[in-house]
Amino acid sequence: MISSTHAAPAELRTERLLLRAWRAADAAALQPILESNQAHLGPWIPVKVSTPAPLPELATRLAGFAADFAAEREWRYAMLTSDERTLLGEIGLYPRSATSRVPYADADRVELGYWLREDATGQGLVTEAARAVLTIAATLPRFALVEVRCDARNAASAAVPRRLGFVLGSIEPRPAALPDDPPAEMQVWTARLSPSGARSPDQPDSPDAQAATPPPSPSQRA
Questions:
Q1: Predicted confidence (pLDDT) per residue in 154-201, tens digit
Q2: pTM of the entire structure?
Q3: Do the Cβ atoms of 144 and 137 come closer than 8 Å?
Q4: Taken in order 15, 22, 96, 151, is the CA torsion positive or negative?
Q5: Are 201 and 145 in contact (CB under 8 A)?
Q6: In the chain, what are the domain boundaries?
Q7: What is the DSSP track for 164-185?
Q8: Which H or E run includes 64?
Q9: How far apart are CA 146 and CA 212, in angstroms?
Q10: Looking at the domain covering 11-202, what would its CATH class be?
């Protein structure tokens, strides 16, 4: 259990977004997004997240995410427009070791994960949300590093850590989700956590040495 001084807040706001812990009541808004975004999301994110389900089952799934957040096992934020009218996707923090997701007490790093509905891409929303949650991750004890793990074929997902100053640390085989799936590779992007968020692992600790990332062109935004 993390002390209340360092606990992740249940709600964050950015210029355009509200990030908050999932609620069972979000099932009604999430269901049509999953149904209409299967081709967009299905190849890249876990089945338990991307698979549409009847409303009661989906509400139970989201209630489980909320329980994990409250128990500080992992921190999944629903991503909404700032007026709370439109659900856009999800961004989350997951305790890890070098080999897998683990309980917080066994973690030495944190994984950043995210997904965004197809009709909201290209606006820099994931990058905006990521900056906010990485600032929170830097305040949580135990985490010295942050990783983004994405399929090497998913260029849009890989653009986010690149834009945030991560470096490509390794490429690993990705287990096939289904027996007939072709072999794939997982990119592991890494950065060190600092009070301002994340920075390249080879940057010095001095705040004056933190490199600024140039803003992306409109065609590069994700």
A1: 999 999 999 999 999 999 987 766 667 777 899 999 999 977 667 666
A2: 0.84
A3: no
A4: negative
A5: yes
A6: 11-202
A7: TT-EEEEEEEE--SSTTPPPEE
A8: helix 55-70
A9: 18
A10: alpha beta
